[in-house]
Design brief:
Number of helices: 6
Number of domains: 1
Oligomer: single chain
Radius of gyration: 18 Å
Largest sheet: 10 strands, mixed
Order of helices and strands: EHEEEEHHHEEEHEEH
Number of strands: 10
Length: about 250
């Protein structure tokens, strides 16, 4: 299967265009945030449902380069923070923002995996998507909250899955398990397995988990920008996928 192309050159352009469509549909202000404000055209971007920052506790739309900037992954980003047992160790202002309470979207996400609400949403969404959706799950321990960046690529383990809508199965397409912190995920076959694995990992008070579910669209080569078939605009991206994630962007 061939990835659709997108009509944008970088994640920032996708984020800004999608935000212009999404914001009128929400009853709250949406905020566009870059990871690295000093490299706005290459860094990853989020649409967040809050002016609070960092927005770890919230579900967010995520846009980032993949494949050496030849593709852009657009989707939903959900994070697991630290458990309450870490409060004494992570008592700094930054550390406290990383500690979960019952308002984190993570808990709603786990519940929606367990009761198959999320799976039902994916079945509907993938009827509009010509290629399988991507699940990226990364995890690492947080040794020093004041220096920790959950979006850094220099540490942590990860699994990348492809979700097959016809069989409702997930297949591992890549993984890195240097520290083995995500070992319960190894071998999962469907979203029910993933729910069980994440629930087990949720017991680890010191583990940070970052999840992205989305679609990868190729960037049109500069010499072929005209008359490209199978190209998605911001409207296509919103209507075909991101609008289905709206209940989790809270």
């Amino acid at each position: 299967m061939i990835n659709p192309y997108c009509t944008f050159r970088n994640p920032r352009q996708v984020c800004e265009a999608v935000s212009s469509i999404a914001e009128p549909l929400f009853d709250k202000q949406l905020v566009k945030r870059p990871w690295n404000m000093y490299e706005p055209n290459t860094t990853l971007w989020w649409i967040t449902p809050t002016t609070d920052w960092p927005a770890y506790k919230h579900g967010k739309n995520n846009f980032q380069f993949k494949n050496d900037e030849q593709a852009i992954l657009s989707g939903l980003n959900i994070e697991k923070g630290l458990g309450l047992e870490t409060t004494q160790a992570y008592s700094s202002p930054k550390g406290r923002r990383m500690i979960m309470d019952n308002t984190w979207i993570w808990h709603h996400y786990i519940d929606s995996l367990r009761d198959k609400t999320f799976e039902s949403m994916l079945v509907s969404a993938t009827k509009r998507c010509p290629i399988p959706l991507i699940f990226e799950v990364s995890g690492s321990y947080v040794p020093y909250p004041d220096e920790y960046d959950p979006y850094s690529t220099i540490h942590g383990d990860f699994y990348i899955f492809s979700w097959q809508s016809s069989s409702k199965r997930i297949l591992i397409v890549d993984k890195k398990e240097d520290a083995g912190v995500l070992r319960p995920i190894d071998g999962v076959k469907d979203l029910s397995d993933l729910s069980s694995a994440l629930s087990k990992l949720n017991e680890n008070q010191w583990l940070w988990i970052d999840i992205i579910i989305g679609i990868k669209l190729d960037v049109i080569p500069e010499k072929k920008e005209k008359d490209m078939e199978n190209t998605w605009s911001e409207t296509d991206l919103w209507q075909n996928l991101l609008s289905f994630f709206r209940p989790w962007v809270i």
